[in-house]
Write a structure and sequence with these properties.
Layout: H1 3-13, H2 15-25, H3 29-36, H4 40-52, E1 59-63, H5 69-75, E2 80-85, H6 88-98, E3 104-108, E4 121-127, H7 136-145, E5 147-158, H8 164-185, H9 189-201, H10 205-214, E6 218-225, E7 230-236
Parallel strand pairs: 1-2, 1-4, 2-3, 4-5
Antiparallel strand pairs: 5-7, 6-7
């Protein structure tokens, strides 16, 4: 293994180094994603916001919020939104861009040990961040813990197109075209090499649905976006069962 491959392998295993990678790309992250996704990232954000269905009076956690592009859309409803991310650089950039946005606060947070109370949020959502967590199953448990009984989970994540022919074209784009474009538009092409590898190694829609179910969520469902390049997963935290009467 050469040094270039070794560095990317280390990133995959070390949360601190992954966080540092996101710190480095924070300033141009949103613009780069729009270019690399050919504008689809905006459509994915709209679909996620609709699935969350934010309302005034709700408290919503947007985990892996990055610079807060998705959080701003949620806060526009009047809901109180907490934008959380494990990258200090992303949080700093988000605060710089959106300091005047009402109902929006930024918090540095580890998805596997969230600094929030049990049952604090009406809805928790995570876009394109679960696959970058060192222990995604633990993150799903933590998201369940901080959600109110009857509250909702919305996860938007890269997935695997079910059509073999389209999946082949998609893999060709990610493996051959994306690295060339990333070197042109990104300040850290290695970061996008890592992100491409993380997409390729991420489980498919059915597997992620099973992980969500195993964490304790119910009413687990998903729908594909962009022919399965992305999948939007939804689930509900079970309501507390009534305590049996002593009589």
């Amino acid at each position: 293994m050469n040094d270039h491959e070794h560095n990317r392998a280390d990133l995959h295993k070390d949360p601190a180094r992954v966080s540092g990678m996101f710190d480095q790309v924070a300033k141009n992250y949103d613009r780069t994603n729009t270019v690399l996704s050919m504008g689809n990232d905006r459509m994915w954000r709209v679909a996620t916001t609709r699935a969350v269905a934010p309302r005034r009076g709700q408290r919503i956690l947007d985990l892996a919020a990055g610079t807060g592009a998705s959080s701003v859309a949620l806060a526009g409803s009047g809901a109180e939104v907490v934008a959380a991310d494990f990258s200090p650089g992303m949080i700093a950039e988000g605060r710089r861009r959106h300091s005047g946005t009402a109902n929006l606060t930024f918090v540095e947070a580890d998805a596997t040990a969230l600094p929030f109370a049990d049952g604090e949020f009406d809805t928790v959502t995570m876009s394109f961040g679960l696959r970058n967590v060192n222990d995604p199953k633990k993150a799903l448990l933590e998201l369940l813990r901080v959600t109110k009984p009857g509250g909702h989970l919305v996860v938007c994540e890269f997935s695997h197109p079910p059509s073999p022919s389209f999946n082949g074209l998609y893999r060709f784009y990610n493996d051959r075209i994306l690295p060339v474009v990333a070197k042109t538009v990104s300040s850290n092409a290695d970061a996008y090499d890592y992100l491409n590898e993380s997409i390729r190694d991420w489980p498919d829609q059915r597997t992620l649905s099973r992980w969500i179910r195993q964490a304790g969520w119910t009413d687990v469902a998903h729908r594909n976006l962009s022919m399965g390049i992305v999948a939007l997963h939804r689930a509900t935290k079970p309501r507390l069962t009534a305590t049996p009467s002593a009589n």
